[in-house]
Amino acid sequence: MQEPVAGDPNAVLPPSHTAIMNPAANPRRMRRIIAEDPEWSLAIVPQLTELCIQHIISNFEKNPILESLLPQHQRKVLDKISISLPLAVTANLISDEDYWKRCCTEKWTVCDVSHYGDSWKRMFFERHLENILKFYIPDTTSSNQVLDVIPLCKEYVRKLEIDQFLPPVKTDQKKEDEDISDTESDAGIDEPSMDHFDMSMLIPALCHLEELDLSYGVKDCGMNFEWNLFEFTYRDCSSLANAVKKCPTLKVFKLSRSKVDDDKARLLIKHLLDHPSLIELNLSHNLIADRGARAVGKLMNCSKLITLNLCDNRIRAPGAQAIAHALAKNSTLISLNLRLNCIEDEGGQAICHALLVNSTLTTLHLGGNELSDPTATLFSQVLAQNLVLTHINLSCNHIGLDGGKQLLEGMTDNKTVVEFDLRLAEVGQESEYLINQVIKTNRELARLKSLQHPSNMPGPNPVEEKHSEGD
């Protein structure tokens, strides 16, 4: 009998061969094939392009390939690469906003990109640098943590807001006591340094920095509270002053709640006298008195300041007189905040005399300054003659009923003031009500005027309006 030839369609195979070629024909002899790769499936094999993209993603840290890819392939890589890659790899290579949005939302719960010029990359680097500085411990944290990140973030940081600076860690108290007892005969023992991070290492290197908001203190210190945790040392002040002087792009400088006294204020202002770009200075909630106020007056005559905030300091009449003298000659300042000082009527009247000749100031806050009827009498002349003031705050003073009537008389022909806060000023309900009626009329006139000429709409300085709530 002739053997069947393999591949011959006419050949008749024996039953055993038929079962091998078609296992279904003989269930008892069916074999199950198990793949060696547990991820193997019947799906279509990925395209080579996809395999290459996956390889790039997996090895991006060691071999970051991006710019040479086609746009659609770049998109796939950026959507899938890890957000935990070192900044040394991603900082200057990746500009895609979606990638930096992923980085921000993964790291912080609240992310309002509108505060960062609608740039996620700027938000990431500003907040990343802020976090490093907030938790930097002098003599413990390596300065390289800051120095290494400067080249990566300097092109993207426009604003820094640092609300705490940690002091050096105190040495063991027992050991410290023993050291003191061993050397108590020595004269001139220096106290441990409480200096914070040296800002002169950082600020001059940030070539686009425009706003600096600092507060030297410790948040959430709890039962470990000590006054020296809130100490802004003279060396801190000196390094900060030198740093600000070397930052020509800086427009807004805020140093609040840092126990800045007259000497430190004078040192800071000495370095700001010739600053080319500064338009807003905020030294609120400090310890500045009359000597510091005189230095501020000198700065007003040598700078382009638009907004000045000295709220909650220790300025009295002589300091207010120095500021008033500068205000009479100033032609740039738009907003002045002296709330919660103690300038009294002597200082208040000096401010009024300056406002009779000043032609730029639109917003004035003199709340909580122990002002009374004599200031109100002179202020009524300001209301009658000054054509630029739009927002006034005299709240929490002792204006009195007669002073209220004087202010009402001054408001009779006023067409510019659209906000006048007289709460807790003891002016009497009738005077306050009638003044508010004039204010409503002025607001309507301002609204109609803005419809004709939008650029002429009176209002507070945008910079002041943005930050007035907390001060």
SSE topology sketch:
Blueprint: H1 15-21, H2 48-58, H3 71-80, H4 87-90, H5 97-107, H6 120-134, H7 144-147, H8 150-153, E1 159-162, H9 173-182, E2 211-214, H10 234-245, E3 252-255, H11 262-272, E4 280-282, H12 290-302, E5 307-309, H13 317-329, E6 335-337, H14 344-355, E7 363-365, H15 373-385, E8 391-393, H16 400-411, E9 419-421, H17 429-452, H18 462-467
Parallel strand pairs: 1-2, 2-3, 3-4, 4-5, 5-6, 6-7, 7-8, 8-9
Helix pairs in contact: 2-3, 5-6, 10-11, 11-12, 12-13, 13-14, 14-15, 15-16, 16-17
Give your account of this protein's structure.
The protein is an alpha/beta fold. Among the domains are: 18-44, no CATH class; 89-170 and 194-225, no CATH class. Helices cover 41% and strands 6% of the residues. The chain has 18 helices and nine strands. It has a nine-stranded parallel β-sheet. Helix 14 links the parallel strand 6 (335-337) and strand 7. Helix 11 (262-272) runs parallel beside helix 12. The longest helix is centred in the last third of the chain and has 24 residues, at 429-452. It starts with 14 loop residues before the first helix and ends with a helix. Residues 173-177, 180-191 and 462-469 have low confidence and may be disordered.
